[in-house]
Amino acid sequence: MSNKAIKTYSIKELEKLSGIKAHTIRIWEKRYQLVIPKRTPTNIRYYTDKDLKKILNISSLLKQNYKISQLSLMSKSELNQALEQFKNGLEWNEKANHYIHELITISLDFDQYKFDQVSTQIIAEKNLECAFTDIFFPLLERIGNLWAREQITVSHEHFLSSNFRKILFSHTKPQTKSFEKKIILFLPQWEEHELSLLLTHALLSNLDVSPIYLGPKVPLENLLESIQQVKPSRLISSVTLSNYNEELDTYLQTLDTLSIPIDLLVSPGYYDQAESIAQKHNVTIHTSKSALLPKINFV
Asked: Is the confidence at residue 6, as pLDDT, over 50?
């Protein structure tokens, strides 16, 4: 893949990342020359990182009663100044969208210094759980869509994922005593997307329970050995890959015989099957990353 392919975007990618409809972007081009798309030798329109960043900034400012006619006349420095001025007065849900836009531009530049600054600010402003459920996870979904379409490299997604893992490890409290209630957290042997499970582990580390994190790709026989040794009061897992339905069914059938409560966090790919899974197996299904921890009954 050429560098050019990596660093350019179609109008549909701009729409997906910014939330601004492609039709609206085209109107802005014609009426205000807000962004001027370049064209390939075969006359296909494309946009650059610079165009994307400008659209992201304008998308944030439009929510604060700015008019597009005003914004089209602003320089880059004036746009940045306006962004800083309005940010402190935003409600959290509005600010979350702005932070997503800001982190997209940071990740495109691999700017570690700015990432550390902004992510620390986000967590301090709210808390770890809200930072992930309202900003970091939605951000990964947007970046993942672009990576799947080969509009960015896998390095951008790895940059974010590795930084989020670092954050979660740093917010996981060391165990200073052993609690009676022990909880095993694991991913089945075909699963490796562990950020939501790491978040749950970090949050559990602040409660009066002993969370035992086995991590991704745990073979069933090894999980059973661990359960026999630890004798946990609860199991927590997560599934994202919906093309492993038969494997999941076999996995859960075996765990059903243990009579241990299981909380299973499922990705959107499993939402349609959630009710069926709950009926067939001894599990509590959670279909939202933010819904998992508050609904677990630790009594």
From this structure: no
Same domain, 242 and 149: no
Write down which residue in 170, 199, 222 finishes a domain.
Answer: 170
Quick one: three-class SS letters along 248-288?
A: HHHHHHHHHCCCCCEEEEECHHHHHHHHHHHHHCCEEEECC
Residue with tokens 């699963």: 191
CATH number at residue 141: 1.10.1660.10
Cα radius of gyration rounded to whole Å, the chain: 22
User: Is the model's pLDDT at 3 over the cut of 70?
Assistant: no
Contact predicate 62/34, CB 8 Å: no
Structural domain of 196: 182-295
- Supply the CATH number for residue 238's domain: 3.40.50.280
Chain segment 187-233, per-residue pLDDT in tens: 999 999 899 899 999 999 988 899 999 999 999 999 999 999 999 99
62 — phi, psi (to 5°)? Answer: -60, -25
Binned at pLDDT 50, 70 and 90, residue 269 comes out as: confident
Q: How many domains does the chain have?
A: 2
Cα–Cα nearest to 194, from 267, 108, 120:
267
Rounded distance, CA 148 to CA 103, Å? 19
Question: What confidence tens digit (pLDDT) does each residue in 40-66 have?
Answer: 888 888 888 888 888 888 887 887 778
CB 91 within 8 A of CB 98: no
66 class by beta-carbon count within 10 Å (0-12 exposed, 13-18 middle, 19+ buried): middle
Q: Which residues contact 34 (CB under 8 A, 6 or more apart)?
A: 25, 28, 54, 55, 58, 68, 71, 72
Same domain, 146 and 191: no
Q: How far is it, in rounded angstroms, from Cα 279 to Cα 292?
A: 19
